[in-house]
Amino acid sequence: MITFQTISSETYKKDHDKFKICYDFYDAPFGRCIIALTDTDKAILHFAFVVKDDTDAVKDLENEWPMSKIVKDSIQIISNIMKNIFTVSNEKEEEPLLILLKGTDFQIQVWKALMSIPKGKMTTYEQVAQIINKPKALRAVANAIGRNRIAYLIPCHRVMGKNGSSKYNCGLKYKESILSYESNTC
């Protein structure tokens, strides 16, 4: 079960001193990723694939949360969370996850709509726009999906163009790997 907290960019700027962020790397079934969470309530606020190298991945995290103190996780909380996310078992009780979304109201609405796309299924930008009752906002929906900073958990990888075109910020290799993983674990 995933629950959300949200924060606007303005609130972050005002309250940035309250944010200490812990990060670590994890080798997911479909590739290496960087995950970051808040120090206090362990809310996941960043989950991205390592496209170039670890240093660039940390720089991307720092650019997303520029006024925060960012430290490497030294007590393996993140590793335990990730193992729980990727343990496939019919008997496993799903651990609740808390995700912190930073963005505009519209972006957050789009990201939450992505959560309604069933695992292993695909949809289009047009269908996402319809889910949020903004059928003419295709470009804005596509931009919001492109700004998603919680890969895999906020499933932007399940969206494609109406003509079947497929894009993914981290590259199509990751998108295809995730979709294959999901189809094998559904």
From TrEMBL:
Q: What's the superkingdom here?
A: Eukaryota
Citing just one GO molecular function, the answer is:
methylated-DNA-[protein]-cysteine S-methyltransferase activity
Q: Cite the CDD domains for this sequence.
A: ATase
Reaction(s) the record says it catalyses? a 4-O-methyl-thymidine in DNA + L-cysteinyl-[protein] = a thymidine in DNA + S-methyl-L-cysteinyl-[protein]; a 6-O-methyl-2'-deoxyguanosine in DNA + L-cysteinyl-[protein] = S-methyl-L-cysteinyl-[protein] + a 2'-deoxyguanosine in DNA
**Which keywords has UniProt assigned to this entry?**
DNA damage, DNA repair, Methyltransferase, Transferase
UniProt keyword annotation of Hydrolase present: no
What biological processes does GO assign it?
DNA repair; methylation
Kind of enzyme, top EC level? transferase
Q: Residues in domain Methylated-DNA-[protein]-cysteine S-methyltransferase DNA binding? A: 105-183
The EC code for this enzyme is 2.1.1.63
Q: Which InterPro entries does the protein's record reference?
A: MethylDNA_cys_MeTrfase_AS, MethylDNA_cys_MeTrfase_DNA-bd, MethylDNA_cys_MeTrfase_DNAb, MGMT_N_sf, WH-like_DNA-bd_sf
| Family classification | Belongs to the MGMT family.
Identify this protein by name: Methylated-DNA--protein-cysteine methyltransferase
